Amino acid sequence: MVECLNKTKVLTKGNYAIANAAVIAGCDCYFGYPITPQSEIGEFMSGKMQELKRAYVSAESELAAINMVLGACSTGKKAMTSSSSCAIALMQEALSYATSDELPVVLVSVMRGGPGLGNIFPSQGDYNQSTIGGGDGDYKIIVLSPSTVQEAVDLTYKTFYLAHKYRNPAILLADGLLGQMMEPVEFGEYPYPEVDHSDWALLGAKNRNSRIIRSYSPQEEPQCEHIRHIFEKYRHLEENEVMYEEIDTEDADLVVLSFGSLSRNVKAAIKQLREKGLKIGFFRPITLFPFPNKRLQEIAGKTKKFLTIEVNMGQMVRDVRLAVNGKVPVEFYGKPVGSWPSVEELAEAIEKAVI
Amino acid sequence: MATQVFKVPDSFKKDFKYTFCPGCDHGVAIKLVAEVMDELGIREKTIAATSIGCSVTIYDFLNVDAIESPHGRALAVATGVKRANPDKFVFTYSGDGDFASIGLAESLHAALRGECLSAICINNTTYGMTGGQLGPTTLLGQVTTTSPMGRNVEYYGYPVKIAEHVALCDGTAFSARVSLDTIANIRKAKQAIKKAFEVQLQGLGFGFVEILSTCPTNWRMSPQQAHERVRNEMMPVFVPGVYKDITNKENN
Amino acid sequence: MSRIVIDSKKCKACYLCIEECPKKLIKISEKTNKLGDRIVEFDDPDGICLGCAICATRCPDLAITEVYKG
After folding, report:
1. Residue numbers in C near B8 (CB within 8 A)
2. Which residues, other chains included, contact A155 with Cβ-Cβ below 8 Å and sequence gap of 6+?
3. For the whole model, what pTM was predicted?
4. Residue A110, φ and ψ in degrees, nearest 5
5. Which domains does chain A have, with CATH numbers?
6. Does the domain at residues C3-68 carry the CATH identifier 3.30.2290.10?
7. What is the nearest CA distance from B83 to chain A, expressed in angstroms?
8. What's the domain count of chain B?
9. Which of the listed residues A305, B3, B14, B50 has the most CB atoms within 10 Å of its CB?
10. B5 vs C1, C19, C68: nearest CB
């Protein structure tokens, strides 16, 4: 176990950094079940949470882990679990419940190869799993996608904050590469205000009527009203919480999009091509939901073409196409799973797309 | 002057009305839970993790904070509530399908971990809310909508004896099976519920009561016949008794 | 004098109490509930109710809301 609970710069693995950031964010409860490539998060938490006298359970399954998070969140506490791909598939039902129950569930997802058991290589194959999800009914999950270990720390803080501010599950979507690589990071303090949950949390019905957190809604109209209320929060998120990184899109003939740690190779490739005089811009959604639709529409009015690069068979590209709504062509380059394409390979693919 | 010897327990909501079918023993079981909460004075610090099935409606009747768990996950949700709030009283109230079929892993692991929780499981040998299908406790030979020729071992295997399984877990402080078929047994049931609640309050571990209950609607019986069935068919297989009580040395 | 109070809005006419009463003081009345079932009533002209609360212990709907002994 790595001891890195301090505020100075340290060299550490992505998974440890995320776990440590969660501790600094004030995570009261961690419930988890091991799966490669994120097991270091649970390993770190098992020691640190006990040391700090916070709640930790080595759960019997991912189903149990996420439902323990539901229970802890229902009392207004900061609670999280972490997992990967095929195991997060098991958590979809609980995420659907948590959106309807309006619980501030925090989930760290470190993507590996799928479908099924797949393999433990890095992948971006769970963009759809995170942003669309596999639970029932109308809902959205807040999804934040870091590209460096430092950003993983900063976005871990933000994941906690947004989950609690909007009372909606939020996913920090990392990948096996980011989870396993070491980089220097600074933790600092948790930069967000604490959210007061005393007006809804289950704390015992003392001097007030009992509170019920439930998704079962046998009447038609109240359920419609409830879902509209939840979607009003999503509209608010889309207006106020969108995050992205944008480079040189103003004069670009081609804007290349990617998300997560893959973006670092993409940016390096674009830099090479810029030096050759090609007018290429770069755009990286940091919040995958809320997706930066508005900004992409603006850019689509100025550029000639988009190219989306992903390590999957084309998942985010659908959101990009929806955002630009046919205004410009949106091409895709990618591979299903495994090591990230090299800078050279990406430069070649991007150059081909420029025309 | 006449003295009042019975009243509706204070732990109920004002103006509640049960939505169970006529003669359903859920009503008796929830009343016993409420009486025990009154006697222990714990209502204000109670958080219930409810389940899916007829049992979920307990949150409509009791004046306690509650979270509705996804099907089978009541003990996981309760674990989360309790670990986050060790000073609260946390209990689950589930049917046999929720506790011992879809949720068997969560239920037994909560007991194995020795979670300081209290769990009530209603065993009525069928899935009531969905219309009387075969469940984990359906008796051999019992006809249900999904065992039209009766439960046979070849197709369905054997029913689960829940209280015995829970008693085998090292983290269990108390495990009992009770019946509501007679007044005497109702009184015993209340004592068992009280014990299952007390072991949590004393920090001793997992407290569990399996309650043999009726489902007159799906059994196609009158409430009176239903109690006879509990007595004559269920109790010989699901034998009532205290299966574990770490507070009673003689019992172990 | 011992007596019980029945909340007629809660009685679902399962009649479990009728059998349990050691003095057989509960009977089916002419009144019906919302579903049209004839609910029970307490009938103790001779004042022999024991105030044992067995009926209230049995009633699965808490329709017997109060029992007095004395």
Report:
1. 62, 65-66
2. A144, A145, A146, A172, A286
3. 0.96
4. -110, 105
5. 10-189+231-236 (3.40.50.970), 245-354 (3.40.50.920)
6. no
7. 6
8. 1
9. B50
10. C68
